[in-house]
Amino acid sequence: MRRRLLVVLSGFALAAVAGFAVPLLQSTAAGRTQEFVLVRATDLDRFAALAQQATGPSGADALAQEVQAHHVVYGEGVVVVDRTGRPVVEAGMRADEPAVAAAADAALRNQPAAHPERLQPWSRAPILLARPVGTGTQAGGAVVLRAEPGAAAADIATSWAAILAGAVVAAVACAAVALLVARWVLRPVRELAAGVGAVTAGRPNAHVSPHAGPSELRELAVAFNRMSDAVATSADQQRRLVADTSHQLRNPLAALRLRVDTLDPHIAAAGRRTYRSTVVEVERLEALLDGLLDLATAESRATDLAAGADPPARADLTAVVTERLDAWRPAAQHAGVRLDAPASPGPTDVACAASELEQVLDVLLDNAVKYAGRGATVHLAHQRGDGRVRLEVRDDGPGLPAADIPHATRRFWRAPGGTARGSGLGLPIAERLVTARGGTLRLASPPGAGLVVTIELPVPS
């Protein structure tokens, strides 16, 4: 946008400078040409008057002296002929030259003299000017002057150089003004774009300066700051509501679980099925509350990280993977699932807290053990490259349909027809923790290959 704005403003500025400079150049050349022609026409009139008065030897000598002096001073040739075309005085050129003879013949016939073309800085060709001698219809002779335009062309070149220099200065000044205007207009736009990105990332107090740019952008900045505060307040209230509600429900749920457990010895055989269903639902409520608390914690941690409130974290991914595999092997063996990982490649540091990494791996391993199915194998592998560490959790279970992949990280979403119970918050929590650390979480389900979860995390700086 900045480039386009600069191009438009610079184009208008250059067009305005050219609109002033080009006519000024033409006017300067035309004025100097007119001055040149008038001076030479005056010289022609003076020579014609002397030729008309040269009736005796003394008059002829005076004419010859004037012509010769002009030739010596200005370096221009002059020829005076009588009514028959015979030369009377010659200085610097001859009357029998074809161009001179043609000009003299035209003057003797009283033909209008052709106006010379406008002089340019590079004009160097001599210009022939002719005038008849006498004032009547019958010319008594003719004067031909070969004018040299070198001095006038040099004057035009000097004037043009000054005009062009001024135009260049004006163009540079206009470009500087265009740059300042572009910065003045676009700086608030860039700040607003950065503010939108900050709000999207969940950063609180994402404000922009309301004092830069045009009044319309300043008003927009004020409105954006109000919106940012409203979004931050709403998000904070939502997180507090989830956390407070979960905490408030935990005590009644614990009391309910205690009472349900105490009823176990007193349940008759006919009510056992209903009792077991009740216990399962209580356990589901407990898992849901735990998920809500974990989600609120993940959201709070992501907000703190976006605001820069927490120091950079570091964890050894290899050690965390090994520890979590050992922790999950009994549950996996009970579910008939085999956990597999290659030999340890050595310490692999990632920019993530160890507790968050453990929570993410627990979510992925829990899903794999629950949904891969008996006899499945869950394979974990990680590698480092291009400043990031890639962790892949792959199983050979049934996977997910391609249409369900985009929904898997949505809160409270569960696969249709699934038999395993869950809160639908595991993957959303894992994704929030990973993205808060500048990483990515992707899901894929290639045909016949089960579910593949790929996590990328940056390495510590």
UniProtKB/TrEMBL annotation:
Residues 183-236 form the HAMP domain. InterPro entries: HAMP_dom, HATPase_C_sf, HATPase_dom, His_kinase_dom, HisK_dim/P_dom, HisK_dim/P_sf, Sig_transdc_His_kin-like_C, TCS_sensor_his_kinase. One of its GO terms (molecular function) is phosphorelay sensor kinase activity. The chain crosses the membrane at residues 160-182. GO terms for cellular component: plasma membrane. Its main location: membrane. It catalyses: ATP + protein L-histidine = ADP + protein N-phospho-L-histidine. It is an enzyme of class 2 (transferase). Keywords: Kinase, Membrane, Phosphoprotein, Transferase, Transmembrane, Transmembrane helix, Two-component regulatory system. It is found in: Cell membrane. Its EC number is 2.7.13.3. Residues 244-461 form the Histidine kinase domain. Pfam families: HAMP, HATPase_c, HisKA. PANTHER family: SENSOR HISTIDINE KINASE TRCS (PTHR45436:SF5), SENSOR HISTIDINE KINASE YKOH (PTHR45436). This is histidine kinase.
